[in-house]
C-alpha cells in the first residue's frame, strides 16, 4: 500500500472514530452521569440530572472529535474513545 493511500485510510479511520466513537461516548457518558446523580450517590432530582448530563454531552462530543484527530494514531483514537464509552455504558447499565 502506498504512503498516500495509507494516509487516506488513516484520516478515514479517524473520521469514523470521531463520528461513531464520539456518538457512543456522548451517549454512554450522560447515561452514566444520570445513573450516578439520580441514584443515592448524587442526591439530585432525576430531571435535573438528565438536564445536566445532556448539556455536558455536547462538550463530550466536541472533545471526542478533537481527540480523534489529536491522538498519535488511529488505533489510539479508537481506544481512547471506545474504552471510556464501554466503561460509561457498563456503569449506566449496572446502575439503571
Automatic annotation (TrEMBL):
It holds the Pfam family DUF3649. The chain crosses the membrane at residues 12-37, 49-69, 76-95. Keywords: Membrane, Transmembrane, Transmembrane helix. The keyword Membrane applies. This is Iron transporter. It comes from Variovorax guangxiensis.
